[in-house]
Every structure is written in structure tokens, then in C-alpha cells.
TrEMBL record:
SUPFAM superfamilies the record matches: AhpD-like
Domain of life: Archaea
InterPro entries reported in the protein's UniProt record: AhpD-like (IPR029032), Uncharacterised_peroxidase-rel (IPR010195)
Name of the protein in question: Carboxymuconolactone decarboxylase-like domain-containing protein
Gene3D superfamilies xrefs: AhpD-like
Length: 188
């Protein structure tokens, strides 16, 4: 049971609903538990949306798919079942990522991943486990697969945004089983 109740989007006034819920509902067909928790403070949710859109925008080097790979790894290391399930579903269903490779990400078995994925996964795991433990070899692995300094920063900011969301979801005891859709395939 979550520490805060999930807020019903129908409790919002029409303007807030149009701004914070309808675009999400139209695009994804549901309202995430993350949103339902943040609805307790609609302005914080609006700020998060602006920030997250900027973080998740594809760039020439760091695609949304690579960011989702990083999210799944960081969430698994950080032991956030909600984040693993939701970002796992997104990675597999929306980005067409193979289920066996998703399972390898969660298990920390990066050997069979492609070079770019392996470099991203290794950095995500290290940032989630011990940010001060990131070494030049982590950065060199990223550079070897085409990351410049701007792309490194972009990736790190994306990973840190997941870790922030992970702390929020874990701190409020949000359970992927509460989502109202079957995430059991991704629940690790």
C-alpha cells in the first residue's frame, strides 16, 4: 500500500486535467501511478513534465531507446520494482527491445549486449551503485561508441532523473501491481 493515496485525475479542475492528464491519457491510454502520486502537487507535476520532456528528447547520439536501457539498468541496481516494470514495458513494447536482452539488463549481464548498449548499461549501473566510482574507463567506453562530452552529460542527466524518480516511488511505496494493467512480465 502506498504511503500516499493515488490521486484520482477526475478530482482536478478542467484546466489542470487538460494540461496534466489528457495528453498523457491520449498518448498512452492510461494515467501512470507516478502521475497519480505527483497530482497531489500539480505544479510539481507540470515542472517534472517540462524537465522530463527535455531529458527524453532524442539527440543525434543518445536515443530514447538508449536512455530507456539506462533507466532499466539503474532501476534494477536501485531496486525500484515500479521503475523496472514501467520502463521495461516501455523499452520492450515501444522500442521493440528483445525480452531476453531486457532480462539481461535487469540481471546485470551486459556481455551479450551490443557495444553501445553495454557502455550505456555499465555507466548506468555504476551511477546507480556508486556515482563516485565512475572512472575514466567508463567514459572512454562511451567515447569509443561515439559519445562526445555533451552526449555524456545528456546520458548522465537522464540516468539521474530516473534515480530521482526511483527515490520518489520507493519512498512513497508505489507498487507496480497497483497500476491496473499487467506488468508482471517486467516485474523483477
Amino acid at each position: 500500500m502506498p504511503h500516499l493515496p493515488y490521486r484520482d485525475p477526475d478530482e482536478l479542475d478542467a484546466t489542470q486535467r487538460r494540461r496534466l492528464i489528457d495528453p498523457w491519457q491520449d498518448r498512452f491510454g492510461y494515467v501512470s501511478l507516478f502521475r497519480r502520486v505527483l497530482l497531489h502537487d500539480p505544479e510539481t507535476l507540470a515542472s517534472w513534465d517540462r524537465y522530463y520532456r527535455g531529458v527524453m528528447t532524442d539527440s543525434d547520439v543518445v536515443s530514447g531507446r538508449l536512455k530507456e536501457i539506462a533507466f532499466v539498468v539503474a532501476a534494477a541496481v536501485d531496486e525500484c520494482p515500479y521503475c523496472v516494470a514501467n520502463h521495461g514495458e516501455w523499452l520492450v513494447e515501444e522500442h521493440g527491445y528483445p525480452m531476453d536482452r531486457f532480462e539481461a539488463l535487469v540481471a546485470g549481464e551486459f556481455e551479450r549486449l551490443e557495444d553501445r548498449e553495454r557502455a550505456v548499461a555499465a555507466v548506468a549501473a555504476q551511477l546507480a551503485r556508486d556515482p563516485a566510482g565512475v572512472t575514466e574507463s567508463h567514459l572512454q567506453a562511451l567515447r569509443d561508441v561515439g559519445f562526445d562530452d555533451a552526449a555524456v552529460v545528456e546520458l548522465f542527466v537522464a540516468i539521474c532523473s530516473l534515480l530521482s524518480a526511483s527515490a520518489l516511488m520507493q519512498g512513497l511505496a508505489v507498487d507496480p501491481g497497483d497500476a491496473g494493467r499487467d506488468l508482471s512480465r517486467y516485474d523483477r
